[in-house]
UniProtKB/TrEMBL annotation:
This is Glycosyltransferase involved in cell wall bisynthesis. One of its GO terms (molecular function) is hexosyltransferase activity. Keywords: Transferase. SUPFAM superfamilies: Nucleotide-diphospho-sugar transferases (SSF53448). CDD domains: Glyco_tranf_GTA_type. The keyword Transferase applies. Pfam families: Glycos_transf_2. The keyword Transferase applies. InterPro entries: Glyco_trans_2-like (IPR001173), Nucleotide-diphossugar_trans (IPR029044). Residues 5-171 form the Glycosyltransferase 2-like domain.
Length: 298
């Protein structure tokens, strides 16, 4: 089997990082290297704590630790990692998530058997140590581009993706101007270039305890503008119905951010007079109720 390089971009949350590292150590496929890219900034509290943790693994030659001089964001950290990687295949692992033991072996087998260059898998979501959700099965499609762009499929590709290094080189990796949803931006470009294999197996555990990364409304608007500037030309090639659904999706996402920030006035304005059609209003309401039940009542 081909060698796999696992990249962990680490910013804050050193208390979670050890479980992420252990999940790589526990893989059934052992031909891997692990590159932890510390993006906290030299001398910061989190950087010192992260380095102390990594010192526990200094005797394992497969584990490499790279310290960024200053915080440059997740995209830059991931690029530093995969560019320096020696594996044929690359996986990214957020520093609060975990791989299940068969993750690397299963995905290498998928890529080698299909001849494709990227694959994703299903995942479990845990909150406060309790499983609250398992991602649904994704039906096989000729192209996942439009459903993914419409937000109808969540691959959680920050931690579920395995991709050939050659394909990352082809698309120039992550766009470092994106400080949010870097995995979404990258996946759209990848889906334009290549076919995707979607594995039905559940191979990743997402730990969703941390809510500190909720963006402000203004920052989210800036992200939306940046996203639209980059992909408008692509979206204009989609069928008219899909273009309309993308606009509905953008309003829905902004309404959710307003709600998470307790900006009730903006949320209500977007919900009732922001241009959402009845179907989208209903689906948004149902989604919010489901999330409340799943993440706060269970």
């Amino acid at each position: 089997m081909a060698k796999v390089s696992v990249i962990i971009p680490s910013y804050g949350r050193p208390e979670f990082l050890q479980k992420s590292i252990q999940s790589v150590l526990s893989q059934s496929l052992q031909d891997w290297e692990l590159i932890v890219v510390d993006d906290n900034g030299v001398g910061s509290v989190s950087q010192v704590q992260t380095q102390t943790l990594l010192n526990e693994y200094r005797d394992d030659p497969r584990i490499h630790y790279h310290i960024q001089e200053e915080n440059r964001g997740g995209s830059a950290a991931r690029n530093i990692g995969w560019i320096s990687a020696s594996g044929k295949f690359i996986c990214f692992l957020d520093n609060d998530d975990e791989f299940y033991p068969e993750k690397l072996k299963t995905q290498v087998q998928s890529l080698e058997s299909t001849g494709l260059k990227m694959t994703v898998c299903r995942f479990d979501s845990f909150k406060n140590g309790k499983k609250v959700r398992t991602s649904p099965k994704v039906p096989e499609m000729d192209s996942y581009l439009i459903p993914f762009a419409l937000g109808k499929i969540n691959f959680a590709s920050g931690s579920t993706l395995m991709i050939s290094k050659s394909l990352l080189e082809k698309v120039d990796g992550y766009d470092e101007t994106f400080r949010r949803k870097q995995d979404v931006e990258l996946m759209i470009r990848l889906l334009v270039e290549e076919s995707l294999h979607v594995d039905d197996q559940i191979l990743v555990r997402l730990n969703i305890d941390d809510r500190a990364n909720i963006p402000s409304v203004e920052n989210f608007k800036k992200f939306q503008n940046l996203f639209n500037l980059k992909f408008n030309n692509l979206f204009e090639t989609f069928p008219q119905k899909a273009q309309q659904e993308i606009k509905q999706y953008e309003i829905t996402e902004l309404a959710k951010v307003a709600l998470w920030n307790k900006d009730w006035r903006l949320f209500l304005r977007l919900y009732f007079t922001g241009g959402l059609n009845f179907t989208t209003q209903f689906n948004l309401g149902a989604d919010l109720v489901q999330k409340f039940v799943t993440y706060y009542l269970k």
